[in-house]
Structure formats: C-alpha cells, structure tokens
Design a protein that fits this description.
This protein is 49% helix and 6% strand. It has 165 residues and is mainly alpha-helical.
Length: 165
C-alpha cells in the first residue's frame, strides 16, 4: 500500500511517461503498468539490499585468512552484524559503517570489504528507483547505491488508486 505522497509521485511519473500514460485507465491497463514498473530500471540503478544472510557473505568470495587478523573488537562487530537474525540490513548507514570499520586499512582487508559490499547491492526495479533516495551507482568504498523507500512490486490496485486520485 502506497502512502498518499507515493501515490502522487506515481501518478506524476505515469503522466510523464508515454509508455505508461497511453495505457487505458482500466484494471487491465493498471495490471500492465504494474508489470512495467516491476521490470529492471533502465539505465541500471543500484539499491542497497535490506537483507543479506551471513551464509551469503561467508560462502561467496570471503577471504577467511583475513579473519585471523581482526582485532577482538572488529570480530565482535562482524558477529553482531548478523547475531539477531542471521542476516544484516546494509541499507542502514550504521551497518555499512560497521562493515567499513571491520575491513579497513590494508589492501587485503579493503578487498574483503569490497567483496562484502558486492553482496549488499542489487539492481532496482523501475518502481523502486522511482521512490529511492541516492545516486543509484554501484558501490565503491561503501557508498553509491540508493536507499529504497519502497521495496517490491506494485499491485494493480496501487496503480488504479494513484491514477484516480
């Protein structure tokens, strides 16, 4: 369910794009508009993921040798990033700051940081880009992707309600 402000933004975007505004204001037209908003944003637009599992990080390109070089405090930060749910939310600035704090300094540690951040971003759908805040570029040094204010897919009723208000 969209907020009233998001409905206004969606309506303005539909009106501004001929591939959307040319579709009829009917349930069938709304289904098609919702489908189009579910496609990947073009050009490519990166967003921070809201959930990345510990297993995904640790089993995909993680340099386990670097763990021995972590201080106790840095090792605790890494543990706490995943402790409560087995996943972290890199869309939160403090989580990204924790990753940066753990993996800074040497070139090998920065490579681990880059590998972790590589898992923390994804390409946005057209609707996610519409409501996102930020540059939307691929992550470099912990910055770049946008933060989502809406995640997922629009329903046809979201589209109908926005177009009719």
């Amino acid at each position: 369910m969209l907020t009233p402000t998001q409905q206004q933004t969606l309506k303005a975007d539909i009106l501004a794009n001929s591939d959307l505004d040319s579709l009829p204001n009917t349930p069938d037209g709304a289904f098609e508009i919702a489908r189009l908003y579910g496609l990947a944003a073009s050009p490519a637009f990166f967003v921070w993921r809201t959930s990345v599992s510990e297993a995904e990080i640790m089993q995909n390109g993680f340099d386990w040798v670097r763990v021995d070089n972590l201080s106790i405090g840095k090792a605790r930060i890494m543990d706490w990033l995943f402790r409560s749910t087995g996943a972290m939310n890199p869309s939160l600035g403090n989580v990204r700051a924790g990753i940066i704090e753990c993996w800074k300094g040497t070139a090998p540690d920065l490579a681990v940081q880059a590998a972790i951040f590589g898992h923390c971003q994804r390409l946005a759908a057209r609707v996610e880009k519409l409501f996102a805040v930020g540059a939307g570029t691929s992550v470099v040094n912990g910055i770049g992707p946008a933060t989502m204010a809406f995640e997922g897919a629009l329903s046809f009723s979201d589209v109908l309600e926005a177009r009719n208000n």
